[in-house]
Amino acid sequence: MRAIIPAAGFGTRLKPHTFSLPKVLLNVGGKPILGHIIDKLLAENITKATFVVGYLGEKIVEYVKDFYPNLNAVFVTQEIALGLGHAIHVAAHTIDDEEIFIILGDTIFDVNLSEVFDKKQSSLGVKTVPDPSRFGVAVCENNKILKLVEKPQTLISNLALTGLYYIRNSALLVESLNELFDRDIKTQGEYQLTDALQLMIEKGEVFSTFQVDGWYDCGKTETLLSTNQFILKSKGTNRNVSGSIIIDPVFIAENAIVNNSVIGPFATISENCEVNESIIKNSILCPSAKVERSMLDNSIIGINAVVKGNYKKLNAGDSSEIEFY
Ligand code: UTP
Asked: 228 in a domain, yes or no?
């Protein structure tokens, strides 16, 4: 089975970090988002992958080749990001198997994939969400998908598509993507994968669903930080740093320097970072960031960025109330 990983988007919602790094390479829990995804695929013996790249794509190619030399990786370029349907269409010529697994490059998930791949029909990962209007949704009966709708205007289902697509009939998917373009079917200005899958249903393909309880989106600062929390909870390292207090779970790279600081909980301190006399919780320090005499919470500090603060000098009298915002 071949995995197809769309990773060509701009990551606009994660600016300024995505000015210099594609979203899928942002570090979460000590590893780029894409690294977590590839590890999960390799654990399932999926060794063939097509990466759809575009914006800053050369950095993705370099990362995959450097860190996963044994992965049978193919890279295709989506010159203009016209939507997920377009991304898969661009990758269509690399499909060499009947079955494919499409996974968005910015989604970390916790699902037993072996169970999914044992299924006899195509199957899409879903999760019940309170407001499905910004997702593709599945209308189901007895676990069979009757209809798929991208970004529905009215509440027709709470089952959102999570970005995990197991397709058993890839030839029909390609046929449906071709039709999407021939008929110029767009939703909200984009060629949507959901619309191509709906065409597959209309052509008789049977889709079931599988529950994705662990769905960790990395598209926005808040979701990147909550995904960081999830990863650290499950895989955080226990590292002692003499002279500093570590509140687990945290990730502190082997070569990061930490002096006289309080780190954690939920702090990722990447390779070559330096932290001096600081308190850092619920934050991600990207590689080579430097933080000095600062208190950080809910923060993402980019590669090579430097943050320096200072301590307050106070002469506070008895019963005074002082608040710093
Ligand atoms: P998103 O729409 O969430 O990612 O697509 P984005 O476009 O990078 O982010 P924003 O909206 O600008 O903040 C989900 C995944 O699908 C890929 C993206 O790279 C991301 O991994 N994608 C999306 C493509 O590869 N091509 C597209 O045309 C659209």
From this structure: no
- Rounded average pLDDT over 270-277: 96
Any atom of ligand 1 within 6 Å of the Cβ of 77: no
pLDDT tens track for 16-66: 999 999 999 999 999 999 999 999 999 999 999 999 999 999 999 999 999
Q: How far is CA 179 from the centre of its chain?
A: 29
Q: Judge whether 225 lies within some domain.
A: no
Among 230, 6, 229, CA closest to 106: 6
Does some domain include residue 83? Answer: yes
Residue type for 215, please?
Answer: W
Residues 112, 46, single domain; the answer is: yes
Residues 34, 5: Cα–Cα separation, whole Å: 9
d(C-alpha 59, C-alpha 21), whole Å? 8
Q: 144 with 293, same domain?
A: no
CATH code, 263: 2.160.10.10
Tell me the per-residue pLDDT of 288-314, one tens digit each, with 9 for 90 and over. Answer: 999 999 999 999 999 999 999 988 889
For residues 213 and 247, state if they share a domain.
no
Tell me, in angstroms, the distance from the centre of ligand 1 to residue 10's CA.
7
Identify which of 17, 106, 191, 220 to mutate to test ligand 1's pocket (most ligand atoms within 8 A of the CB): 106
Ligand 1 contacts CB of residue 136 (under 6 A): no
> Which range marks the domain in which residue 23 is found?
2-217
Residue 15 is predicted with a pLDDT of 94
Residue 236: pLDDT over 80: no
